[in-house]
């Protein structure tokens, strides 16, 4: 029996902790066969405090990769860093042509450690070409605010407002990653299926080594959907997976520490508490 096939349409993180590198490691840990369509290559300058440089790939190269991968019969797709409006539109068209229901949109807008949106027009393009196709969208607090056209949520109530607005844009399910940035004593994420809100809580990890956490979370959901989980169970397991990965994050160099993608399968599964809110 063959493996389920998962495709990530995303950028390459040369340091290995995020992007397609994180996605492939996560797919592997979940027993799926990962494929890639690279959109950008991101490098970091060790001579300039690890400053990020983003190199978009030519659109014909992106299209050729998508044609190759989709011809194999994909079971689930996720998107990550899509650096231009043209690449976003191309990804949306490819998703349409695939006919897949299992589509996870991770609306990456900045590189970790950076504070400028890659391209301000990308938000509009995501709303038009990607959100209506999403079985689930996985924004962090900043991204949720951008998509919902509101200030960055700081409370559970503001997260709920953002989730409702994003759902109205076409995403069938929304999970907003609060993490440890939210004003809360736990690391929390909010799941919304258009009917009810579920708060997922875990103990905060005492670490700054969380590079790639967002990509890892979305990739875990993608693999879980490919493997037949319901959307809610896919999110719960992904929360366990990424919590373990963050808890066991490690120092790569003086600038960054990635999560450990194999942590859940090597150590004890973290406890996640669910609350209807």
Helix content: 25-40%
- Give me the Rg, rounded: 17 Å
Reported for the largest beta sheet, the result is: 6 strands, mixed
Element-level helix/strand string: EHEEHEHEHEHHEEEHHHE
Weakly predicted, low-confidence segments: none
Q: Mean of the pLDDT scores?
A: 94
What's the total count of β strands? 10
Strand content: 15-25%
Walk me through this protein's architecture:
37% of the residues lie in helices and 21% in strands. The protein is α/β, with parallel strands linked by helices and 277 residues long. It has a 6-stranded mixed beta sheet with strand order 3-2-1-4-5-6, sandwiched between helices. Strands 7-8-9-10 form a 4-stranded antiparallel beta sheet, sandwiched between helices. The radius of gyration is 17 Å and the shape is globular. Helix 7 runs antiparallel to helix 8. The protein contains 9 helices and 10 strands.
Furnish the topology, listing elements before pairings.
Blueprint: E1 5-13, H1 19-29, E2 33-45, E3 51-56, H2 59-70, E4 76-79, H3 85-98, E5 103-105, H4 121-129, E6 136-137, H5 141-148, H6 156-168, E7 174-179, E8 187-192, E9 197-202, H7 213-226, H8 231-247, H9 263-266, E10 273-276
